[in-house]
Request: fold
Amino acid sequence: MAVRLVLRLIAVLLVLAGIGAGLLILSSERPQDVPWTKLDLGTPVGVFTGRKIVALGREGPSCHAALDRAGVTYNALPPRTSGQCGYQDAVRFERDGARNIRFDPTDLGVSCPVAAGLSAWEWNVVQPAALKIYGQQVARIDHFGSYSCRRMYGRGEGAWSEHATANAIDVAGFRLEDGRRVTVVNGWNGEDAKGRAFLRQVRDGACDLFATVLSPEYNAAHRDHLHLDQAARGAAGWRACR
Reply:
């Protein structure tokens, strides 16, 4: 009887050792597939990348450090307060800064977690999709803005929008290096198969990096843009991808 217990214990220890070895290998080869590794925006997107980015909303210095490690050039914006609205840790990408697509309009200020998500989205999703489908990169991203002191859908009552804290951005379209434009309003259900494929690929990839992603498939209010936000609930695992 004692021998059987010892053998079972040895078997359990071997299994645990195997699991531990596997996790160590995973940590080194796919660091964003495990929860305890430091966020690296330049590594391939993993299972926990999105949650780590959302969690940066509670850790201002850590968010700036993540941008710095990735080589993102940005300016920290001063805090802003306006009733229920405002932001404490927003940043603006430097115009034509290193490693980032230029946004149009250029005076885009977003929460640091949104900036982190946009950076990882550009490098791991947008540019690879553009190269695969069009054979060229995206030069600019057109948007409808980020900060807007309003409730969801502009209603007079109800929950406040993530835009009220600059924790969201509405992406309207993309400009390729040759000047071609791919817009959500014309391309999502347009006749150009490449445009439809590209827009869906960047939407699907955003779902791994943002807490909430809403496209024209969600409702008519999003017929002309992709809504990307880093709502705090995403850190707990709740995510929306429509």
Observations:
- The chain has a mean pLDDT of 87.
- Residues 31 and 137 are 27 Å apart (CA to CA).
- Residues 2-29 form the longest helix (28 residues).
